[in-house]
Amino acid sequence: MTCEQHLVWIQEAVDGTIGSIRRAELDAHLAGCAACRALLDDLQRIHDAAADLPAIAPPDRAWLQIAGRLRLEGRISADAVAARPARRPYAAWLAIAAALVIAAGSAVMLVVPRNTPPSQAPAAAAAASTAGATPEVASVEAVNAVEAAQAQFEKAIADLEKVAKANQQALDPNTSATIEKNLGILDQAIADNRAAVKSEPASVAARETLFDALRQKVSLLQDTISLINEMRKGNNAAAAQLVNKS
Amino acid sequence: MATSKATVHPSAGAAAAASRSAEQALVDRCRRGELGAFEELYRAHSGRLFSLAVRMLGNPSDAEDQLQEIFLSAHRKLESFRGESALGTWLYRLAMNQLLDHVRSRAARTGQLTDGLDDATVLADAGGHKLAERAIDRIDLERALAELPEGCRAAFVLHDVEGLEHKEVSEVLGIAEGTSKSQVHKARLRLRALLSKRSPYDV
Phi and psi (nearest 5°) for B2? Predict the structure, then answer.
């Protein structure tokens, strides 16, 4: 048999589907044919390298956009959404938002702490204290907490945007354009989810998704400012890490 | 953005069969309009589908747009999911149709022809082109993948990257099992030719 005729067997060997008799015949051919040995070795390495390619996670905002569009298309049942348990009490969102305002304040010095744990925020204590309230009182408090948290997020975003815009010239135009595009996508998701909250005030999931979108915008702005910091320090490795992360 | 690759693919045997009823329950909740159920479905499958989209389209921005279309289309078509194949396979099929349509319409818009691989080219690729002894660089491999014609790229990504069997690849792509084998085999030979041309200092 010629090398050409052994090609299929070489491929089956890489697939792991070659039978034992064919494998023995192939081995006999390989013993005397350096070109086919090299081919098998290369194809096996390509197969193994492909199998080792990592999965790539989609950005968090992808889900927000999908959820926003499903709501706009009226494909989400209000009952089913309302029945979904809250993943996070509203007061805890308020706590996170409050912590972000502090973070946004310190961003003026272009130093932004990330991932402030909600448990360290003082408002978390307030959340615990409402546990024994009557349902009516708790409901009013929940609405107030949602509104307050939204306001806090918006303040944090406004502060961070001011800092990011004032220092944007430190970024190269391509990076800057990508950030602008991503901010635009998040703004659209926030607008969609805000409309959903307005049309379904009782929907727990609608509020959760709105908060997720707001939190992601804060996070993107924080990353932008961190990137500006690293570029100014000339720390290209850290800057590249931030770009890859986002 | 990289995460660890899922180790369970749509035909992981008995475990997959046992999870069918759980999948069906999740699909039923999605059909009732439960956003939480659809988010669960999204979290379980979006990583694999996004990886597939990035590798089929060659850029994360297009892949993100198409991922959105894939899941919106999945939500609309869940009514037609009968549980005859695993949910993962059904989603792969839906995703691949969407991605191949997108690749073809993009090629038509930009006037880029996606050439097929004729047997003469493939046999030429089988000779010579020994790869360097160094390990195959991940970025080089991703770049070479993007240069493959879409048919054999799709089969290669599903088989060698995602770990599907040829039978599953044939179900996802709606082709014969033998065609899946020949497409994957052609892809490997073409990748060998492409990778052997790259110097370690290529940018």
Answer: -70, 140
